[in-house]
Write a structure and sequence with these properties.
The complex is a heterotrimer of chains A (292), B (278) and C (478).
Chain A lengths: L3 H29 L2 E2 L10 E2 L3 H8 L1 H31 L7 H9 L6 H12 L5 H10 L9 H29 L4 H8 L4 H29 L3 H6 L11 H9 L5 H34 L1
Helix pairs in contact in A: 3-7, 3-9, 7-9, 9-12, 11-12
Chain B lengths: L1 H4 L1 H25 L3 H4 L13 H7 L2 H34 L5 H13 L2 H15 L1 E2 L2 E2 L4 H7 L1 H18 L2 H9 L4 H12 L1 H17 L2 H6 L7 H6 L9 H27 L5 H4 L1
Antiparallel strand pairs in B: 1-2
Chain C lengths: L1 H22 L3 H8 L5 E7 L2 H18 L2 E7 L1 H14 L6 E5 L3 H6 L6 H7 L30 E7 L2 E4 H4 L2 H11 L9 H17 L16 H11 L29 H16 L9 H9 L5 E3 L2 H9 L10 E4 L7 H7 L7 E7 L7 H11 L2 H11 L11 H9 L3 H8 L12 H17 L4 H19 L4
Classes of the chains: A mainly alpha (292), B mainly alpha (278), C alpha/beta (478).
Membrane topology (chain A): Multi-pass membrane protein
Keywords (chain A): Membrane, Transmembrane, Transmembrane helix, Transport
InterPro entries (chain A): MetI-like (IPR000515), MetI-like_sf (IPR035906), Sugar_ABC_transporter (IPR052730)
């Protein structure tokens, strides 16, 4: 309808920025991933070793285990956040006294730095001196020890993530719900549709793009989680919460395993892209075809 | 019936708020206790208050510098990303550009990268490549504002796209027919309608930039250090200063809350679809 | 505590500096500084009390005297290494001074990252301060020398990890009587591992019986943090005669018993089981404890005895705001197996951990000469006493005799005496350029031992094999 030049001009700053700060570093990481490189090896230089790093990744039991717990973590955290976040966003759609106040409170966890969130949860959950193990023991006789129990540590990281990031989902979905035009809902009510039908046939399709965007963001952020978990459990007990972000951090920072760490990162990035692409195609594509 | 139900949500939200606030209350508890008190059987109720952590924080001039850097970087980055994201989404939503869906998907891949490994190339680029003479982007607020675009710009694009797609094209076409310029259409027709989405994007990009740690820790040294890097200074081999970290965090809640409440009003201000109907 | 110390230290230093300036001959610093007009030195270090003292007190003094500005960036533990390594590896030249912890100096030396302090000062005598001699430094400086005895780092912190015990509990008549009745011997700080376990078991039971928050020992046994790995390999294993992590540098870096190493030797396994038992009777938070929490656990009065890093010993013993056991802290050598003391005395082994750090000058620095001036400045004897009070660290021989330091020594139950007289018996991290690499490669297995997923014997076997594998892949083991 208008000149494409204007379209490209509007896109250009984004493309340029992402090229210089996103694509160029990626090319460098890709380059490093084909080398053996640890600055504290006998030979500290980069040595080209074909796809050896990638061959190792496929058979690296530790990495695969880390990938496994990460997928479980992301699944439980993101699904819970989506359900709770949607329910809360809907709850905010009605009018009630003190709504703005409650909304502000609900968004508070977002403004806490991950390193602080990790510290608070660590001090709340440390055996014997944390408030949660004490309450659980006094009230229910339940023994919470995230330094010993893998399952408990995993669960606490999931709950911490839900506490920290559900407000993001709520806010995004509020924005989507607020923007919905009222006509289809009024029409449906006139036609005698019940609440469940309205939800499945009207609300959900209309806010699907927003839901997908939110799920994507949470999915990829949860995959990259480092600071909070490092502070809370350090990846332990054992390797129970050594999520890929933490695993890569430990490979690259203390172990200075730049070559292999780069290969792992490329693989993780690739898997994330593929997973998101499949999700995107399966959820967005039907919408587009229906439109057309 | 409506009146009776008005207080039910209040009860519900009081309960939810309790869950949300408990860890934050605990942060406050940590901030008003000496470390040694944290190592005993805890009690939910505070009896003694120990203000020393706050006095220490207030007396520290470096921290004030960090606070200013954090405010400048997050605000600058949030405004930049929201603006560029809005422009990009308008282009993606309204123009028939070849390969635009692929471009849209590609932008988000920039956010997926595991950060630890990308620190090295970013460090090299900022210190050695992206420089003019003596001026390099390393350890500058501008540099951090630009670097944060790698994860915040894709976010802005992805949250704004549904908003812009949701604004009927007929509206701007009608305006064009009336002889409005592209700038006028964008600023006077589309922008106001996109306000809830823009407000949420602004808040959330601000939050991400405000909380970012790894990139800031590696790419800043003296001039552009942020609060999160300041917080991590208290995690040392000798000890972790829980109380001071908590006191700083309580302080950081204040500017964040102010910015939040300023922007939050715009989220609901977007109920302007009456205009669409008319 | 850091900031409180900073403020206190600054106030102290202001009055101190005023008094000192007159007494001291400033002409060397003024003249030497004149040639570096407009130079700003930049250093990176950890935000510990000794480093904060450099940043807040010594750096401003130096600037006033020489006109050379010193900016010190303080950061967290893991960031500090990463930033220094990135800078030196890439040759960026951001830093003129980097903090070198004792355990990483060998990696830096192997990569020729650091400027030779001895050599440069010999070549350029005009840079050498008349007030500085390398012989002023304690034996801790030996860790920062190469084979030719050249110094590469100026020590700023030095600590040992002693055995702390609660003097009030150990001298309580009721407890003493009960202990005597139960064990048939007098209650006194343990000399052997068996005695230590006996005391630990006794106090844990005592706490339980009397409904006290008291346990018999500390344990730095975090199940996901390198702190636990360090406690075992650097504090516990040596007391059983397993040195240098059980790796033999003379023998092709062997770690497994089959190849001549000791990492999975019977002694190593015995040491691990001994320590795991202590972990089980330590306060419950121990499974989440790094060095921070261990020190706080002891300061909160929750443990009767324990191995605690010396940098924390000072505030545990003297700071009322931080500690509930002020005045009740005794210091002793860690409990030992037979023959270990002899090994340590002859220099063949060591009986615990000697830690600390130094400032070095990266070869990539653009202001090496000015940086060397600063290093000599902070090494002066006159400046050490107040620095020792602020950070409970001693790196010069003369500091021990200062009356202020002597007074603190009394409060610390003789900790500084032990550092002076028996410091040589303690050892730093082994001289390995692959320190963090081998630690990180084996640590996940170690954490699995701690959670009980792998038995201790089997776990150490796996760790030894893993260590050899990592050393082979890095090229150290042929």
């Amino acid at each position: 309808m208008h000149s494409k030049t204007l379209g490209w001009a509007l896109l250009a700053p984004t493309l340029i920025l992402l090229f210089f700060f996103g694509v160029v570093p990626f090319i460098y990481v890709l380059f490093v991933s084909f080398h053996q490189w640890n600055p504290f090896a006998v030979n500290p230089d980069m040595i080209f070793n074909w796809a050896e790093n990638y061959r190792r990744v496929v058979f690296d039991a530790q990495f695969l285990a880390s990938l496994g717990v990460t997928i479980a973590f992301v699944f439980f955290a993101v699904v819970s956040e989506l359900i709770i976040g949607y329910a809360l966003a809907q709850a905010f759609m009605r009018d009630f006294p003190g709504k703005a106040f409650f909304r502000t409170i609900h968004t508070l966890p977002l403004i806490m730095a991950p390193i602080i969130v990790g510290s608070i949860w660590k001090l709340m959950t440390t055996p014997s001196i944390g408030i949660l193990p004490n309450i659980l023991d006094d009230w229910f006789g339940y023994n919470l020890n995230i330094g010993q129990s893998a399952l408990q540590a995993f669960t606490v990281t999931v709950i911490m993530d839900i506490w920290h990031w559900t407000p993001l989902v709520t806010l995004s979905l509020i924005a989507a719900l607020v923007s919905l035009p009222p006509d289809p809902f009024e029409q449906a009510q006139i036609d005698g549709a019940n609440k469940r039908q309205i939800f499945w046939h009207i609300t959900l399709p209309m806010i699907r793009p927003a839901i997908i965007a939110t799920v994507f963001i949470r999915l990829m952020d949860a995959l990259r989680t480092v600071d909070e978990v490092l502070m809370l459990t350090g990846g332990g007990p054992g390797s129970a919460t050594r999520y890929v972000g933490v695993h890569i951090f430990k490979e690259v920072f203390p172990r200075t395993n730049y070559g292999y760490g780069s290969a792992i990162s490329v693989v993780v990035l690739y898997l994330t892209i593929v997973a998101c692409w499949l999700l995107y195609v399966s959820l967005i594509a039907p919408r587009n075809t229906r439109k057309g | 019936m409506r009146n009776g139900n008005r207080w039910l949500p209040v009860l519900f939200w009081t309960l939810i708020s309790f869950l949300t606030l408990f860890p934050i209350y605990w942060l406050f508890v940590i901030s008003v206790k000496p470390a040694v008190e944290l190592f005993s059987t805890p009690s939910v109720i505070l009896t003694d208050i120990y203000w020393q952590n706050y006095l220490d924080v207030l007396g520290d001039r470096t921290l004030r510098g960090y606070m200013v850097n954090s405010l400048v970087i997050s605000t600058g980055n949030a405004v930049l990303c929201t603006l560029l994201g809005f422009m990009a989404c308008y282009a993606l939503s309204r123009f028939d550009l070849p390969g635009k869906e692929s471009i849209f998907f590609w932008t988000i891949t920039n956010r997926m990268a595991p950060p630890a490994v990308f620190l090295l190339p970013l460090f090299l680029l900022l210190t050695q490549v992206y420089r003019i003479g003596e001026f390099s982007l390393a350890d500058t607020r501008t540099g951090m504002i630009l670097v944060y675009c790698t994860f915040n710009l894709p976010f802005a694009i992805w949250t704004l796209r549904p908003t812009l797609d949701g604004i009927p094209k007929e509206l701007d076409e009608a305006a064009y027919v009336d002889g409005a310029s592209a700038w006028k259409v964008i600023s006077e027709v589309v922008f106001p309608l996109a306000r809830p989405g823009l407000a949420v994007t602004l808040i959330l990009t601000w939050v991400f930039a405000w909380n970012e740690y790894l990139l800031a820790a590696t790419l800043t040294n003296f001039n552009a250090r942020t609060l999160t890097t300041g917080l991590s200074e208290y995690v040392t081999t000798t000890g972790t200063e829980w109380g001071i970290m908590a006191a700083i965090s309580v302080f950081t809640l204040i500017p964040a809350l102010i910015i939040f409440s300023l922007v939050q009003r715009h989220i609901v201000a977007g109920l302007t679809f009456g205009a669409v109907k008319g | 505590m850091n900031i409180a110390l900073k403020i206190g230290a600054s106030a102290l230093a202001l009055s101190f500096a005023a008094g000192m300036a007159a007494a001291q001959d400033d002409s060397f610093w003024k003249e030497a500084g004149a040639q570096f007009e407009g130079v700003t030195l930049r250093g990176v270090t950890e935000a510990t009390p000794p480093s904060n003292y450099v940043k807040d007190v010594l750096a401003p003094q130096f600037e006033e005297l020489t006109g050379i500005r010193v900016d010190i960036e303080t950061t967290s533990w893991d960031q500090m290494y990463d930033k220094a390594i990135k800078d030196m590896e890439a040759g960026t030249g951001i830093y003129d001074m980097v903090y070198i912890e004792q355990d990483i100096v060998y990696a830096y030396l192997a990569r020729d990252f650091l400027t030779d302090i001895t050599g440069t000062l010999t070549e350029k005598p005009e840079l050498k301060s008349p007030a500085f001699e390398e012989s002023m430094l304690t034996s801790f400086a030996e860790f920062f020398r190469d084979e030719d005895d050249h110094l590469y780092g100026m020590p700023v912190e030095a600590f040992i990890k002693p055995y702390l015990y609660r003097t009030d509990l150990f001298s309580d008549p009721e407890i003493m009587a009960a202990f005597k009745e139960q064990t048939g011997r007098d209650l006194a700080p343990a000399k052997t591992h068996e005695e230590y376990t006996e005391i630990a078991d006794f106090f844990t039971q005592w706490g339980k019986d009397h409904d006290l928050d008291l346990w018999g020992t500390t344990a730095q046994a975090h199940t996901g943090h390198a702190a636990s790995w360090y406690e075992y390999f650097e504090s516990v294993a040596p007391t059983f005669g397993v040195y240098n992590w059980g790796i033999d540098p003379e023998n092709n870096y062997a770690a497994t018993v089959e190849n001549g190493g000791q990492m999975n030797s019977p002694e190593a396994k015995e040491a691990l089981k001994w320590w795991l038992h202590l972990r089980d009777i330590a306060p419950p938070e121990s499974v989440q404890s790094t060095w921070t929490e261990v020190a706080t656990t002891f300061a909160a009065g929750r443990a009767a005895q324990g191995l605690v890093y010396g940098e924390n010993a000072a505030w545990i013993a003297s700071d009322e705001n931080q500690s509930r056991v002020v005045g009740n802290v005794g210091v002793a050598l860690p409990p030992l197996s037979e023959g270990v003391l002899e090994d340590a005395e002859s220099g063949e082994g060591y009986l615990g951990y000697y830690d600390g750090g130094a400032f070095g000058v990266p070869v990539t620095s653009k202001n090496k000469e000015a940086a060397l001036l600063f290093l000599q400045y902070i090494a002066q004897d006159e400046l050490q006493a107040d620095w020792a009070l602020a950070g409970s660290r001693i790196t010069n021989n003369a500091t021990y005799d200062d009356p202020k330091v002597q007074a603190l020594n009394e409060e610390l139950g003789g900790y500084f005496d032990m550092l002076r007289d028996q410091g040589d018996l303690f050892g730093g991290a082994p001289a390995y350029p692959f320190h963090a690499q081998v630690r990180e490669a084996t640590a996940p297995i170690f954490y699995s031992i701690l959670t009980g997923d792998i038995g201790p014997d089997e776990g150490l076997d796996q760790m030894a094999a893993k260590a050899e594998e990592e050393l082979t892949s890095l090229g150290y083991r042929q």
